[in-house]
């Protein structure tokens, strides 16, 4: 893969950069600007080299047409603050405004295009349907830099197709992410533990299957743990449960046993009578979850157990919060897990936090990014990489220029 330094003198060149600026918004307020801060160095590097930088990105899941609540306008403002220079904003993606503003850019200036997904061609299923939009994007620029790690597993116009139309390079953020993932998959320092949590077990089953071949320990918490507990015969009350996955999970538990992978499940949970911060809640053992309650966090004994299982690890990948951390009474398990990772990071272990909510959780709980080895900007992409899948947005970069 070529890096931006292989692109030669960029002064005066129009560089289209695909970034991942998909930040959580409360109205027009950005509640976690991590992805903007992570994307800024590549953009700044190009601008400092004299390029006319045209940034494209998506926000949320609009259905192929403009929707005010998904506008990138607040992101343009914040990006300007992070870069320390004004960012021009186009109120369409490839329309008259984008064309005019791209043409008027001066050396070192940065333009952000409106949400890519306001255009049906961005996420269309067939190559033919994406081609027109990809062509319009490509016509704005001379070269393409792929830096949206959160979308490299997507075969989308701004990720895949445009790279086939323009000379291209891998941005620094994508390079860094891929380097870290390589360290997790190629001969990781052991013991190597993977911690999985979050809401949906079906999202993460594929990666569990693949990890049984590489990880030494698999720690499971969050909403997905109740499908595991149910597979072991426990009653889980009103907790999240994917009953159609119980058999698959049983199969994994057996395989883990055979392959000598230790699966660590919580021994206690915080059980609440409703999915709400002011619900009545208590700590119960996993074999005593009341029928009318739901587990919303791992309990204190489990937190201690998980910390103990991580203490000697040299490599840890963590995806998915241990509980419904957005509500204060159910944040302790996620906080304890983050603390355990911070401790081993300080002792030289490689720790990687992947997943949008996991990254938001550690920041919301007061941790600094620097306390972890790496906070990934792409939960889905990193999971698919660890699952051993091909990521189209990386394959196309490896293919080289058309
Ligand atoms: P990530 O974005 O890090 O990959 P996920 O999207 O898989 O994580 O899951 C995050 C969500 O899981 C959070 O919104 C959190 O509230 C929810 N969650 C975690 N534990 C539970 C639980 N026990 N019950 C319900 N929801 C949970
Ligand atoms: Mg999520």
TrEMBL record:
The record's note on quaternary structure and interaction partners says: Monomer.
What does the record give as its pathway?
Carbohydrate degradation; glycolysis; pyruvate from D-glyceraldehyde 3-phosphate: step 2/5
Keywords, in A-Z order: ATP-binding, Cytoplasm, Glycolysis, Kinase, Nucleotide-binding, Transferase
Question: Which domain of life does the UniProt lineage start with?
Answer: Bacteria
Q: Which residues bind ATP?
A: 204, 295, 326, 355-358
Which reaction does this enzyme catalyse, per its entry?
(2R)-3-phosphoglycerate + ATP = (2R)-3-phospho-glyceroyl phosphate + ADP
For whether the record's keyword set contains Kinase, the answer is: yes
Task: Give the EC number(s) listed in the UniProt record.
Answer: 2.7.2.3
Q: Which family does it belong to?
A: Belongs to the phosphoglycerate kinase family.
Chain residues that bind substrate: 20-22, 35, 58-61, 117, 154
Q: Which gene encodes it?
A: pgk
**Pfam families assigned to the protein according to its UniProt record, in alphabetical order:** PGK
Which HAMAP family does the entry link to?
Answer: Phosphoglyc_kinase
Kindly list the places in or outside the cell where this protein is found, as annotated in its UniProt entry. Cytoplasm
User: Protein name, please?
Assistant: Phosphoglycerate kinase
- PANTHER family (UniProt xref): PHOSPHOGLYCERATE KINASE (PTHR11406), PHOSPHOGLYCERATE KINASE 1, CHLOROPLASTIC-RELATED (PTHR11406:SF23)
What Gene3D superfamilies does its record include?
Answer: Phosphoglycerate kinase, N-terminal domain (3.40.50.1260)
Q: Per its record, what are the GO molecular function terms?
A: kinase activity
